[in-house]
Design brief:
- The structure is a single chain.
- By secondary structure, the chain is α+β, with helices and mostly antiparallel strands.
- The protein has a domain at about 50-185.
- The chain has helices at about 10-65, 85-95, 130-135, 200; strands at about 75-80, 80-85, 125-130, 150-155, 160, 175-180, 185.
- InterPro entries: N_methyl_site, Pilin-like.
Length: about 200
């Protein structure tokens, strides 16, 4: 009788190849899933951040309506006390809560962005410092073409929005609210670098 020999080694080898292929497929799928989750998370954070920016502008308008049309200045120095628009609007938006400080200390409020960077110096949003210095009386409602004048935006380490402070933290774009209330996400390269531009100072050459 002829004996049949089984090649057990080949079977084991085939199983190992299958295992390696399965691991490779799972690794690819895991990488794709992580990328997708990261994108969804970024999108959600951008949505939250821009929603907070809109609310900041809404409170700025309400403040102006109750203060003879005067918007809060980016910075205000009186009697040796340095305050910002954040101090002013915080007291207006949260009258029963003491001002917590800047940056990450503002978490949970409309003045916070989940996209804020690490570090004590990091800031969330800033109002247009160039505009504030150009029109110290703060009567922005009288300006022409408000849809092309920046009021509020993402910043790096200051409570004032300037050419040097624009922060493309929204997946490479800068969140901006204009004086007419509309919001845009713009590439940093599409924002005028000249502080004398109408975008910044609302003045024509």
């Amino acid at each position: 009788m002829r004996k049949t020999h089984t090649r057990c080694g080949a079977g084991r080898a085939f199983g190992l190849v299958e295992l390696l292929v399965s691991i490779a497929v799972i690794s690819v799928l895991a990488a794709l899933l992580i990328t997708a989750v990261s994108r969804v998370r970024m999108s959600a954070q951008i949505t939250e951040s821009t929603a907070n920016m809109r609310q900041c502008f809404t409170y700025s308008m309400l403040y102006a309506q109750e203060n003879k049309g005067v918007y809060p200045a980016a910075y205000s120095i009186t009697t040796a006390v340095n305050t910002t628009w954040l101090n002013v609007l915080w007291a207006y938006a949260y009258p029963d809560i003491d001002f917590p400080g800047y940056g990450r200390d503002m978490e949970g409020s409309i003045f916070y962005t989940p996209l804020i960077e690490e570090g004590a110096a990091a800031r969330t949003f800033g109002t247009n410092t160039h505009l504030s210095y150009q029109y110290r009386e703060g009567l922005y409602n009288l300006l022409d073409d408000p849809g092309n004048i920046a009021y509020l935006g993402d910043v790096k380490t200051s409570s004032g929005l300037t050419t040097a402070q624009i922060n493309p933290r929204n997946n490479g774009q800068v969140g901006l609210v204009f004086l007419d209330g509309h919001l845009e996400l713009r590439e940093a390269g599409d924002i005028p670098s000249d502080p004398a531009d109408y975008f910044w100072r609302a003045t024509r050459p």
